[in-house]
């Protein structure tokens, strides 16, 4: 491990230091106070907004606030002028932030982050001088995000960025590495990793506080590859680091396995462990390990299949996941014991990651009406977390928005905040890459007392 604590000094000397390690700093970035991360992360337990990939630093996919009740209706919608495929909206204090891809060519990438009023949809600001941004993390004063980088272009402007949450101005960027995992913001620190190892950075300047070599890295290149709870940072290579100094607390070693897709809750780290077997299907199981020691508390075998990319959701005493190899079958386990609780097969396909709020499971997907062949609608569904039974389904109305002539519309992962649901749509399964940039839209759903559009049609098919 290398500790890289930098002393305070004159602003000119600090600016010189930051440039030498590839940090670009705006005026606001020269004021900093570096403190150790607190052990008390009660704010992550009580989060009512969706502030990072998978909602919170534990990556549970859950919020303690409520979603729309008892049903939903469209509050507002808009054309994204780009794509948010595989990315999530983030929400805090009446503002929703969207990370949009506008160009994903082999030679370069571009995008923007926009801030919008959750009630009216009014744009507050838009920062478009960016490479393609991943799902951002909301800190106290800034948004932090890594970028998607083309494998074939070494001149890409990729890196790790911080922008002011009030104005959208770029405050600092780390370009000494082009690829970083999606960060977590705790107190005045940012936790992330790149090809060299794991990092804690000063949130105001991007300056390295500590670095631990060969830990974390880019094992899981998707959003949410690291998580945080009670002063410990967990990585998808099966490692737990002390957040204060970057020292290894425990590490699971198995060259033939991957410990991906992890969530921290209930004093445990829940991994989807994939055991690679030569000339055979991979063996997959859910493992619940102690956050203090890495010891296995329980494991649940879920068969053989290809690696599943979609993430867990954990809340209210349940661990929820899609069955490997299945696009539409969800299983719920008891989070304490690993015992099977229920399995539910859904009507439709292209289902999103799972979201939990007020004991309700929300997910996006695509629905094809059997009574009207060729009619495809993006849909948001709500399930009862205790039984898996469907509460309602909302078909999204894309009239007045630009959509693909292929149809194929599906809704992405719903985010919940301020009592609303935020979800994007995309042309699921389209063979044309540019369709994802041209035909993706954004919806905000609010509470309604009326039965949602399409509910009776879906109920007749599935119940």
Mean pLDDT across residues? 85
DSSP helix count? 4
Largest sheet, in brief, is:
5 strands, antiparallel
Strand order of the largest sheet: 1-16-15-14-13
> Compute the gyration radius: what is it?
21 Å
Termini Cα gap: 56 Å
Q: Oligomeric status of the shown chains?
A: single chain
Q: What low-confidence regions span 5 or more consecutive residues with pLDDT below 50?
A: 1-21, 27-45
Structure class: mainly beta
Q: Percent helix among the residues?
A: under 10%
Shape: globular
Count every beta strand, where a strand is a DSSP E run of 2 or more residues: 36
Strand content: 35-45%
Protein name: Tat (Twin-arginine translocation) pathway signal sequence
Organism: Haladaptatus litoreus
Domain Pyrrolo-quinoline quinone repeat: 76-175, 286-424
Pfam families: PQQ_2
What would your notes on this structure say?
This protein has 463 residues and is mainly beta. It has a domain at 67-88 and 353-462. 6% of the residues lie in helices and 44% in strands. It has helices spanning 11-20, 42-45, 433-438, 455-462; strands at residues 2-3, 23-25, 62-63, 71-79, 90-92, 95-103, 110-117, 123-130, 137-138, 142-146, 160-164, 170-174, 184-186, 189-194, 197-202, 208-213, 226-229, 232-235, 239-242, 248-251, 257-265, 268-275, 282-290, 296-305, 313-315, 318-322, 329-334, 340-345, 355-357, 360-368, 376-384, 390-395, 409-411, 415-417, 420-427, 441-448. The strands form eight sheets. Strands 1-16-15-14-13 form a five-stranded antiparallel β-sheet, with no helix packed on it. The protein starts with a strand and ends with a helix.
């Amino acid at each position: 491990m290398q500790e890289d604590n930098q002393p305070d000094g004159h602003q000119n000397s600090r600016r010189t230091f930051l440039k030498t390690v590839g940090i670009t700093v705006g005026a606001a970035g020269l004021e900093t106070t570096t403190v150790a991360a607190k052990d008390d992360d009660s704010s992550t337990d009580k989060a009512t907004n969706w502030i990072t990939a998978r909602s919170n630093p534990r990556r549970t996919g859950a919020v303690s606030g409520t979603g729309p009740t008892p049903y939903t209706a469209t509050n507002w919608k808009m054309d994204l002028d780009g794509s948010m495929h595989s990315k999530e909206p983030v929400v805090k204090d009446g503002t929703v932030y969207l990370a949009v891809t506008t160009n994903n060519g082999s030679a370069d990438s571009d995008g923007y982050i926009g801030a919008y009023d959750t009630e009216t949809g009014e744009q507050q600001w838009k920062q478009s001088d960016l490479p393609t941004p991943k799902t951002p993390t909301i800190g106290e004063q800034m948004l932090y995000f890594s970028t998607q980088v083309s494998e074939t272009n070494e001149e890409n402007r990729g890196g790790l960025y911080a922008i002011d949450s009030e104005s959208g101005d770029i405050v600092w960027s780390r370009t000494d590495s082009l690829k970083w995992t999606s960060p977590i913001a705790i107190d005045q620190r940012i936790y992330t990793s790149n090809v060299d190892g794991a990092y804690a950075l000063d949130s105001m300047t991007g300056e390295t506080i500590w670095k631990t070599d060969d830990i974390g890295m880019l094992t899981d290149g998707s959003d949410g590859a690291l998580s945080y709870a009670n002063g410990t940072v967990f990585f998808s290579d099966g490692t737990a680091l002390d957040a204060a100094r970057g020292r290894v607390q425990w590490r699971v070693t198995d060259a033939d396995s991957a410990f991906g897709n992890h969530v921290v809750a209930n004093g445990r780290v829940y991994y989807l462990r994939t055991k690679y077997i030569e000339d055979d299907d991979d063996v997959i199981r859910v493992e619940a390990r102690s956050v203090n020691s890495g010891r296995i508390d329980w494991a649940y075998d879920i068969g053989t299949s290809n690696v599943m990319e979609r993430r867990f959701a954990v809340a209210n005493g349940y661990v929820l996941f899609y069955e490997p190899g299945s696009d539409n079958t969800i299983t719920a386990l008891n989070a304490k014991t690993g015992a099977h609780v229920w399995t539910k097969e859904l009507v439709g396909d292209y289902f999103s990651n799972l979201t939990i709020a007020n004991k309700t499971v929300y997910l996006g997907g695509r629905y094809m009406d059997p009574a009207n062949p060729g009619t495809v609608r993006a849909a948001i569904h709500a399930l009862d977390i205790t039984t898996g039974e469907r509460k309602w389904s909302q078909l999204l109305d894309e009239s007045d928005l630009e959509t693909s002539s292929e149809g194929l519309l599906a809704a992405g992962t719903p985010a919940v905040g301020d009592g609303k649901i935020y979800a994007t749509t995309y042309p699921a399964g389209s063979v044309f890459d540019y369709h994802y940039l041209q035909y993706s839209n954004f919806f905000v759903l609010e509470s309604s007392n009326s039965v949602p559009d399409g509910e009776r049609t879906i109920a007749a098919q599935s119940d």
